[in-house]
Design brief:
This protein has 4 helices and 6 strands. By secondary structure, it is α+β, with helices and mostly antiparallel strands. It has a single domain, classed as Nuclear Transport Factor 2, Chain: A (Roll), CATH 3.10.450.50.
């Protein structure tokens, strides 16, 4: 059973990454990623904190990514591994290109829990926000007019949704 769930989680995540890649190049919009989450899912963002519920996650993608998409940012995947319902992914946040052609890059991790039926019930993205800030200062990045600041005191609860808490114990 565990191997079947792990394979299904990997296949679902591959579709998720494909959609994210399409978003990075402007072929799809951010709200499309919410379709990969259960109705009661939780999404943890390093700047915005805890976001609860698929439709709230959908709106979060619109709000949080305003002014960031289309400026050379991308999120290439490096590796992914699974253990039962848990999936861990390592990716890079590319913030654009330096004059010499190398990327402004900050590595990130995500922990997701796969609920079945092609849906995740939890995603926790981790980025070193100090590294992000230092990189943006070095880039002399100026936020575009559409950019939205995250809340000053976001909800930092990183627990799984109550209905899915049992997945943390199932390995």
């Amino acid at each position: 059973m565990s191997e079947a769930i792990e394979q299904e989680a990997l296949e679902t995540y591959a579709r998720f990454v494909a959609v994210r890649d399409e978003i990075d190049v402007g072929e799809k919009d951010w709200p499309a990623l919410a379709d990969f989450f259960t109705e009661d899912a939780v999404y943890i963002d390093p700047a915005w904190g805890r976001i609860e519920g698929r439709e709230t996650i959908r709106q979060f993608f619109v709000t949080s990514m305003a002014g960031l998409t289309g400026h050379g940012w991308s999120t290439p995947e490096n590796w992914t591994m699974t253990e039962g319902h848990r999936l861990v992914s390592q990716w890079d946040q590319i913030l654009g290109q330096r004059e010499d052609g190398t990327a402004w890059l900050v590595p990130g991790l995500s922990i997701l829990y796969y609920a079945g039926d092609g849906l995740f019930c939890y995603s926790h993205d981790m980025l070193n926000m100090t590294h992000i800030g230092q990189t943006m200062r070095a880039m002399q990045w100026q936020p575009p007019a559409a950019f939205r600041m995250p809340p000053r005191e976001p909800n930092r609860d990183v627990s799984l949704p109550a209905a899915w808490a049992h997945l943390a114990k199932s390995g």
